[in-house]
């Protein structure tokens, strides 16, 4: 058990063992990072259990620490149910104290209803099988449980108005999805802002963006495209991403006006006005 009473996860045990072996080898995080060919911040995330090394990084860690394949072998036991390019992000969500997300065309995964998520997976997989889609929906909606716990993160959500207008799953599914977001915003569970079409070009027009901050480690940024994802911990890139987020937020509607626009869009979907 950890000092706060919560059990250690397998990833946390992996990270703690890495820190123990690194210290025993007389290496700083910076010295180990140099041999692994990564940033010291990434070593910090490994040791905190927030991220797992790639097989190549684990192999280099074993060489640097003289651990004879120990960390590479253990890594195989920590398989994830998420796609490779998203697994680290899902783990970080569980540890973050602040999540700031921007969505360009789709509702962020943490906020999706079952019906909305199902419609997306069916669109992604034209030859889908029902049981596969069911499992995908369960995995996605389980992520949202991080918002229900006593240590839940502060959540800021910035939506391009295109998210409200693209009808996913039909009028009723879309209306329910938007009302869920508005209800959460009015309940104080998230801070909501909409970037309206009338704002024109904005600083995040090229990609979705998620920023995550932690109590005892450096922040990270995540951007995603088709079948790709890039998790960034380089301080310069994270700072650049945060500036872009702040600029876009400055062009957005207020929280109150954003909730009103989301509710209005829900009504329009439900009554076939889109």
UniProtKB/TrEMBL annotation:
Transmembrane segments: none annotated. Residues 18-70 form the HTH cro/C1-type domain. CDD domains: HTH_XRE. GO terms for molecular function: DNA binding. It comes from the Bacteria. Pfam families: DUF5753, HTH_31. InterPro entries: Cro/C1-type_HTH, DUF5753, Lambda_DNA-bd_dom_sf. This is Helix-turn-helix domain-containing protein.
